[in-house]
Amino acid sequence: LSLSIQTAVIDISETNLKKVLEELIENAFKFSDDGSGVEIVGKSNGNTYTLTVKNRGRDFKQEHIQQIGPFMQFEREKYEQQGLGLGLWIAQKLMDLNNGQLAVQSSGGETVLAITFSVYGL
């Protein structure tokens, strides 16, 4: 695990932030190649703050990104997957409830999950 975090006061409760990060980090480790590690970067961008969780492993196909929902597990017939398929959906819903955004990008074996918040007070 590699961390590079700038501090900021963001507009989300500690409980909700903790749950979002748990889901994203667990997902990153679950789908990363053995020994490849997970990188978390937090940066302030003026009136927003973005945390990215990056891992290397199999690609998250664009059509699957569009289908994130409860109990969705993609390519289950090809890959063993533990869990109920709720993690990214829970993270998405918590971000929606807190006026934040969750974006997923994946190509070349690298997947980046980015959550963006308003900086508190702006």
DSSP helical segment count? 3
Q: What is the end-to-end distance?
A: 31 Å
Uncertain spans: 74-84
Helix proportion: 25-40%
Search tags:
single chain; 122 residues; alpha+beta; five-stranded mixed sheet; 3 helices; 30% strand
List the topology elements.
Blueprint: E1 2-5, H1 14-31, E2 38-44, E3 48-56, H2 62-65, H3 87-97, E4 101-107, E5 110-118
Helix pairs in contact: 1-3
Explain what this protein looks like in three dimensions.
By secondary structure, the chain is of the alpha+beta class. The chain is 27% helix and 30% strand. The protein has three helices and five strands. It has a five-stranded mixed beta sheet. β1, α1 and β2 form a beta-alpha-beta unit. α1 runs antiparallel to α3. The longest helix has 18 residues. The chain is globular, with a radius of gyration of 14 Å. The termini are far apart. About 9% of the residues have low confidence.
Provide a brief overview of the structure:
The chain is an alpha+beta fold. It contains three helices and five strands; from the N terminus they run E-H-E-E-H-H-E-E.
